[in-house]
Amino acid sequence: MEAFLHGRLSQSANNVSQNLGVTSFNNSASELRTNTINLPMIKLEPFRGHVEEWQCFGERFKSSIDDNSSLTNIDKHVFLRGYLQDEPKRLVAGISVTANTYETTNKIMIDKYGNKNRIIQAHVDALENLTPIHTPTPSLLSNLYIECNRRIQALRALGENVENYSRVFPPKVDKN
């Protein structure tokens, strides 16, 4: 049984290494082999100008497009413009889509939406402006919890000590 499990684990490890693009050395055949993997497509949601969504969009865009050395600046510019909607799209509409203007377009977006203090303030404002619940139901309480948790986790990701905000927010559920 132990030999069977060892054989299955070795086979599974070999399959995993093949799927992850690992270079391995086969002792029995004394050969070097390299395997690659086709990673799943990363889906980027369009950016519509909500400042509190910039961090997620910006980081995903940077890691999947901007840091991709196989893409030219014109390709990066086309991708960036393709993901912009509403206000951000209008903000850069007058800039020609060329390799030379990619950095300018990207900088405009980062300057307008990537200000950490603005992002923090947007999350705090959203928490302060949550509609109080006068007649609690499981559904309303669940939605309130999810929204609060989402905002608090975003603030933590931005390095904020969320414990400092506990006295600032008015009660959102009536105690009556």
TrEMBL record:
Q: Pfam families recorded for this chain?
A: DUF1759
- What PANTHER family does this protein map onto? PROTEIN CBG08539, RETROVIRAL PROTEASE-RELATED
* Superkingdom, natural source: Eukaryota
Q: What is the lineage of its organism?
A: Eukaryota, Metazoa, Ecdysozoa, Arthropoda, Chelicerata
Q: From the Swiss-Prot or TrEMBL record, give the protein name.
A: Uncharacterized protein
